[in-house]
Design goal:
By secondary structure, the chain is mainly β. It contains two helices and 18 strands. It has helices at residues 2-20, 238-248; strands at residues 37-44, 49-56, 78-82, 87-90, 92-93, 98-102, 113-119, 125-131, 141-150, 153-163, 171-180, 189-192, 195-197, 201-203, 211-216, 219-220, 228-236, 270-285. The strands form three sheets. Strands 1, 2, 5, 6, 11, 12, 14, 17 and 18 form a nine-stranded mixed beta sheet that branches. The longest helix is centred in the first third of the chain and has 19 residues, at 2-20. The radius of gyration is 25 Å and the shape is globular.
Length: 290
């Protein structure tokens, strides 16, 4: 008897739900959306220049010209970088499409805080602040090399690790790859391999003082004719970590119904990120480990 009553209840509830779907909403009022300044700058005491990119976002439901998805840079902004005592207005560089100045224009020092203010003639105003991480990036060590021979093509996968620095609140960005190009240094480019195991952006939350382990994807001899693996390890601030983790989380999901992930920003009055980093690039001769 109870089972019969439960069936009647479920059928009645289903009819109520279906009945509620009878009327469709045909028009929805969408609030107006205004463009925002999109500011991106990564400040480092290791770089020989300071670079700031400034764009404007495209409002919702604004059509573009055909398949043109480009966002032209804002070239008439006033971009001011300050350490609290000294400040410099960074000029626009039409060749790079960014605001660029040599590091001699303002000294960028580890452990110091900086502010960034961007204004435009049409009334846009964005600002942010960051602190350059202090300390030295940990040493990276090779823990193993797997050699793969498939149909006569020999490749390797490199396992490596580094140990978290003492103290909590550390954030890291690691990348491994090779250099390609000719013998001139300015014509060489970093070819990032990516990791089969390990995340490129990590924090020491719940891992204070522990090792972070990684394994690269396959590296073929043609990828590294000089037999050198280059590993870049950066100490970053939390904003750098949060921004890249949020942009990376948009990809790699097989769930079609997954909710959109908001992209992190620390730009007041706009979008983007202003963050501090400090690191080093280590050259590892793979021939010493074969």
């Amino acid at each position: 008897m109870k089972k019969h009553n439960l069936t009647i209840f479920l059928i009645t509830g289903l009819l109520i739900i279906l009945g509620a779907c009878d009327s469709m909403i045909s028009e929805v009022d969408v609030p107006d959306s205004e463009p925002k300044l999109v500011v991106t700058a990564f400040l480092s005491s290791d770089d020989d220049s300071v670079s700031v990119s400034v764009y404007k976002s495209r409002p919702l439901y604004v059509s573009s010209q055909g398949w043109d998805l480009s966002f032209p840079p804002v070239n008439n902004a006033t971009v001011t970088l300050s350490d609290g005592l000294n400040s410099v207005v960074i000029p626009f560089n039409p060749y790079s499409g960014t605001y660029r100045a040599p590091s001699s224009a303002i000294q960028v020092t580890a452990g110091k805080s900086y502010s960034l203010i961007v204004t435009t003639p049409d009334g846009y105003n964005a600002s942010s602040a960051c602190t350059i991480p202090d300390g030295t990036a940990p040493d990276v060590e090779i823990t193993g090399i797997d050699t793969i021979n498939q149909y006569g093509n020999i490749s390797i996968k490199v396992s490596l690790r580094f140990r978290d620095l003492p103290g909590t609140g550390n954030f890291y960005r690691i990348a491994a790859g090779t250099m390609y190009g000719n013998e001139y240094a300015y014509d060489k480019y970093f070819n990032e391999m990516g990791f089969e195991r390990g995340e490129p952006y990590v924090s020491d939350k719940n891992k204070d003082g522990e090792y972070f382990t990684f394994k690269t994807w396959e590296i073929y001899e043609a990828d590294s004719p000089d037999n050198i693996l280059y590993v870049s390890l950066l100490l970053t601030d939390e904003s750098y970590f949060n921004y890249h983790r949020s942009t990376g989380s948009r990809f790699g999901s097989d769930d079609f119904f997954a909710e959109p992930t908001p992209v992190y920003t620390n730009i007041n009055g706009g979008l983007g990120v202003f963050a501090g980093v400090k690191g080093q690039i280590t050259e590892i001769n793979l021939g010493n480990f074969r």
